Amino acid sequence: MTALVAVSSHLPETVAVAELQEPLGLDDQQVRRFTRLYGLDRICKSPLSEAELLVAAAEKLDGLRGQEDRVKYVIRAKGMRTTAPYPVSPVHQVRETLGLRHAQTLSVADHGCATGLLAMDVAGTLLAADGDPDALALILAGDKTFTPFTQWVQDTSIMGEGMAAILVAPDGDRDTVRGYASRIHGRTDGVIDLTPEIAKHARKIYQDALAEVVGAAAEEAGIGIPDIDLVLPHNVNRVSWTVAAKNLGLPNDKFFLDNLSATGHCFCADPFINYQTVTELGLLKPGDKYLMTAAGLGQTFAAMVLEH
């Protein structure tokens, strides 16, 4: 089964939400909502380019050093469709810098902040088809907020520039993928902007759609939702996960939200940044079943169950 070999992240210096009030055009009420209600405090921001941020994350991967020749695929997981101005290609810059010129390179997108989990599934599929038990895939997750559209989701979250690098193997004896589910409740015209109409629809379906993919991933893993030991969500806001915990019948303390106030919502890198933190804290025991889950613009929902 697809396995996580190593995960690293780069978290830039942070700025307070209050310092972003003028740049984002927030009023006082919105600042209070984001900080007091949603639990956001500081947001990762960096003057570095997207490629430099991704390299900073990948260079911390101990499992990559000396194993570069085993990397068959470099997969860029993008929360946004466009993450750099044409003709800049951050993923190719990263591949060259890391010395992975022989690796096939591709990007996955259009699942919004659920794209990181899609990239995990794509990596597992490619490695299984490759047939080489020693092959590896490197996933690069996270986005640079280089346009006003990418800096915040109105009345929902503020985006950070933390990045994650994930090394994936076709099989392993820990952190193996047991179940994955993804659903798109999008529009035929492909519009993802949160217009009042789309935002209303997104709020209406959000919790039920999230519960459906969590249930589907758990079923594929052969467990029930109550059997999940820890949830590593994307850091959208505290309220959404408080409601989700009640809707899923899980206690609030099973949701790891400690990074939410410290990083902001770092697109599809969040679950992996959270994974690195909980492993460093020793919060996962051998055999624990943990859930990575996320929702993205365009009403895309995903959940993945792994066994530590």
UniProtKB/TrEMBL annotation:
Pfam families: ACP_syn_III_C (PF08541). One of its GO terms (molecular function) is beta-ketoacyl-acyl-carrier-protein synthase III activity. One of its GO terms (biological process) is secondary metabolite biosynthetic process. Keywords: Acyltransferase, Transferase. InterPro entries: ACP_syn_III_C, Thiolase-like. It is an enzyme of class 2 (transferase). Residues 219-307 form the Beta-ketoacyl-[acyl-carrier-protein] synthase III C-terminal domain. Its EC number is 2.3.1.180. This is Beta-ketoacyl synthase III. The lineage of its organism: Bacteria, Bacillati, Actinomycetota, Actinomycetes, Pseudonocardiales.
